[in-house]
Fold tRNA-specific adenosine deaminase.
Amino acid sequence: MEFISHMHLALEEARAAAGRGEVPVGAVVISPTGEVVGRAGNRTRELSDPTAHAEILAMRMACAAAGSERLPGHDLYVTLEPCPMCASAISQARIARLYYGAADPKSGGVAQGPRVFAHPQCHHVPEVYDGIGASEAERMLKDFFAARR
Ligand SMILES: [Zn+2]
């Protein structure tokens, strides 16, 4: 099967999040049949919820659609390296493949920091592909934080 990246949809969600005054991170979940079953941007401020990261919200939508707390065979695209909380949730949801954009040296939990998927307590490790659409994701984050200073 031909690989079709859905990162452009995650970048759209990140842009929309910036427009709401949220940190510009977006995520989409793709079902095993290739459908978009979850898409979200950060909404931590809007929802007054520190767990309302794009990945969590997109997985909640996908789980509701699947009627299950697990998403085997699903792919998750996110514009920024997941934090430890989201990485753990991705593992618990049994996401098959994780595609992320920019690296996050400050708060990332996949390639740096706690490296959640490399920990022996991590029972499900997705395939991980990094750097997808990274330059646009980075630019959005830089612009966002520059504007707030
Ligand atoms: Zn997160």
In short: The two ends are 46 Å apart (CA to CA). The pocket of zinc ion is lined by residues 53, 55, 82-83, 85-86 (CB under 6 Å). The chain has four helices and five strands.
